[in-house]
Amino acid sequence: MARTSFTVVVLICGVCGFASAQCPSGDLNGDCRVDWLDLGLLAEQWLSEPNGIDDLHGDAIVRMTDLGVLANHWRQTGCPIVINELLAHSHDVAPDWVELHNVSSIPIDIGGWFLSDSRNDLCEYRIAEGTIVEPNGYVLFHENEHFGNPLDPGALSPFKMSENGESLYLYSDNDERFGQCLVQARFGASETGVSFGRYLKSTGTSGFVMMSVPTPGQANAYPLVGPVVINEIMYRPAGDGDAEYVELLNISHDPVTFFDFNTLLPWRFRDNSGIEFAFPSDLPVTLQAGEHLLLVRNEALVRRSFSVPTDVQILQWGSGRLANSGETIQLLKPGDVDDAGTRYWIEVESITYSDGSHPEAFDDGIDRWPPEADGQGLSLNRLCPSRYGDDPNNWHATIVTPGSAND
Ligand SMILES: [Ca+2]
Ligand SMILES: [Ca+2]
Ligand SMILES: [Ca+2]
Ligand SMILES: [Ca+2]
């Protein structure tokens, strides 16, 4: 099954130069629907040599497989427009904005489609007639001019996006070609001027994550990584199960203190199953540029079990354990308080690791995390600290290096 989809993606790239998860498999010409045009293209490919496509294991078999995929998605349409980026926490002088992106190869008329920040009212802002998004193009909507502007006739219920995070929806209503398209972008709390954007992971699924720089109206920048990253995860030691640890690394050029002097609150480290650690407030901890730090369940046990450089700072999280089957672990710093007085937390890092045997935990049904870190003496090591972390292709299982550079 996996081989089938991969083949089709390769073919799509070969035919039209891009692939998109929003359009159905088998859509070879990129118009986000599977029909006779695609069948025609497949027929053309059928007669040609598979030049430059390494993964064809024999024309006839591969092409019959592709025909099968096409047949399985016959007459299906997808959603050619995605919510690609948004800025929900702008500077005082600049408005919030939303960027939509056309992932198809045809112009899409989104006049009459809706933007909204409420699941209970998908029709808060009606996009003006004649709004066309060019193939592979972008279109922007601003809070002050559009969705938050009571003078805009489309603003049926003017709204603004919360800097503390929420969901934004794009709804095609009863569009003739792409009816009932409903796209959701869920985002968290953010710092001033930091946008959230769509980022395609190695797994083929996309995340909606903080961007290193906002790019309104253009292709997205790389995700924001750092200043501190989760660099190594020992979730299941071979010996005593309590000798587990998480290694942090300051990848920036400046010291980072795990305490916010505006809110007077410390940073936090947490998981889904009982770890809830606040960094010290009385004597805030600082990590120098390039320095490692260990978060552990039991310091004495970690020191006994592994060789840790003597100058490495170690902090105990106390109760709770890193799940042996995998889970999400997060490094958070304090954000703002909302009108109801609730404090929001900004994700500095969020990694969903796994032991390699939980395909159900991932959108695409494949668990790519290495099983060798599951109680066999190895740990999960980040390959490139400066690269995006919540992607299994940036991790491998190798020898433990608690408190020092990864192997
Ligand atoms: Ca098509
Ligand atoms: Ca962008
Ligand atoms: Ca564990
Ligand atoms: Ca290490």
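^ calcium ion complex. The pocket of calcium ion (ligand 4) is lined by residues 231-232, 247, 401, 404, 406 (CB under 6 Å). The helical segments are 2-16, 36-47, 59-72, 143-147, 299-305.
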